[in-house]
Amino acid sequence: MAVFEVVAGAELPQLKREITQDKINRYALVSGDGNPIHTDPEFAARSAFEGTVAHGMLVLAYLSEMLTIAFGNRWPQSGRLKIRFRGPARPGDTVTAGGKIEKIEGGRASCSVQCCNQSGEVLISGEAEINLP
Questions:
Q1: Which residue of 60, 107, 122, 132 sits 20 to 30 Å from the alpha carbon of 28, by its own alpha carbon?
Q2: Which residue from 64, 52, 62, 60 is spatially nearest to 25, judged by alpha carbons?
Q3: pTM score, two decimals?
Q4: Pairing relation of β-strands 122-131 and 108-116?
C-alpha cells in the first residue's frame, strides 16, 4: 500500500540519509569492495576526487528504500529501475532521494527519480516503473 495518493504529478515521499565514512567502510566490508577510493582517506586525497567517496550502490540503496516506503512490497515485487550515476557522494553529505509520478498507464506508474546532496547536486537520476494494484 502506498503512503501517498498515487496519481500523475504526485511527489514521492523524500528520504534523507547522511553519508559517513563509517557507513562507507561498513558497506565496503559487506560488499567486498574495498577499493581505497572509498576506504583510504590518504589515498583518496591524491585522487581526482580529492577525498573518499561513497560506493554508488550504497547511494542507490537509498533510492530503492524510498521507493519501498512509497510503494511497499510492490516495489521489490514488480519495480524496474533505469538510472545514471551523475556525481559522487562524500562523507558529510546528506543525500535526499525523491521523485515524481510522471504518468500512470496500463496499470503501471512511471516515475522520475533522483538522489541529490545538500547542495542540490544530482548524484543519481533515472526512471522507475512499478505495477499498481
A1: 122
A2: 52
A3: 0.92
A4: antiparallel
